[in-house]
Each structure stands twice: as C-alpha cells, then as structure tokens.
Amino acid sequence: MSDLDSIRERLRAAGTDEGRKAAQKFVPTADRTYGVRVPILNELARELDHADLEMVLDLWNSGMYEERLLAAKLLERFGRKEPDQTWRTVQRLAMDIADWATGDTLATEAVRPILKALGPEVAEAASRYVESDGEWTRRFGLVLLTHFVKDPGQQARIEAALASASVDRRTYVKKAAEWLRRDVAKSNSIAADTAG
C-alpha cells in the first residue's frame, strides 16, 4: 500500500456522518468530503514528516476537501527550506481553490514560513489576486494581505485592496475584507497604544 493509499484509508476511517454534516454547514462548497474533523487532519499533518511536494500535489489533485486541506497544511513544512518552490506551488494551487477553508489555509499556514524570504513578492501577488474575478482567488489575495497589516510600507496596497473588494457583494469576499479590516484596526490600535 502506497503512502497516499494509507493516508486515504486513514481519512476514510476517521470520517463520520457528523463530520460530513459539519463540513457541509461550515464549508458548503466542499462537496467531496470524508467528514474528518480538522484536529485529526492537524495530527495527520504532524505525523507525515516524510511528505514531499509530489505527495502535496497528489493530495490536492484528488479534489477531496480534507486531502486539499492536508496538502495546504503540509506545504508549511517546506517553506523555510524551499521558499521559492513552496511559493510557486502555492500560486499554482491558488488557481484551483474551491472553498474558503482550503484557500485560507493555503494563504496562512502554507505562506507563513516563506514571508521572511519572499514577503514583497507575496504582497505584490496578493494585489493581483484581489483584482481577480474569481471569488476564491480574490478572497485568497485578501487573506494573504493579513500578513502585512503591521508593515507601514504595505498600507497603501492594503487600502487599495479593501477599496477594490468593497464593491464585491459575494459573502466570502466580504468576510475576508472584514477580517483584513479588523486586523488593520487591531494593528493600528496596538501601534497607537505603544506610541502613546
């Protein structure tokens, strides 16, 4: 049995009807799901210390909700050692996001370790994603920008992204824009408290 087959067997065994119902409630566009809860996926991601980028892509390409979440979580471990390859992979996967949860995981967990090496490149790409017509791609760009709320050099970029997103009426784009606004307000409040 291959590693991928073993992972899928574990996911099938861990899936429950309750988990499938929860996924449908909280991630309604996740139509292919095992019904595995996120803490179990987190545990599995920690155990897969031998995972490589090929496994990440195989998991993502399955189209299964939990396999895609797991792929995004596994990408985090490559970021410090291979930031350029990780970023190329993230960008490739970002064009195939099908729900808010995998997109947010990709934009946060997978990207976090590459920011030190590639922060300006990520911020620039985030602006392009925000200008996309696709709901999940636009949301992905907004979530990427949450990494930069404390960077004074990125404030104009964030303001432009929020202005662009303000006319978008899609629920998940509006929620991401609100998340970004809250993070900006929180960062500004902390900066004001520190200065005062």
UniProtKB/TrEMBL annotation:
Superkingdom of the organism of origin: Bacteria
InterPro entries: ARM-type_fold, DNA_alkylation
A UniProt-annotated Pfam family: DNA_alkylation
PANTHER family: ARMADILLO-TYPE FOLD (PTHR34070), DNA ALKYLATION REPAIR PROTEIN (PTHR34070:SF1)
Protein name per Swiss-Prot or TrEMBL: Putative DNA alkylation repair enzyme family
Organism in which the protein naturally occurs: Fimbriimonas ginsengisoli Gsoil 348
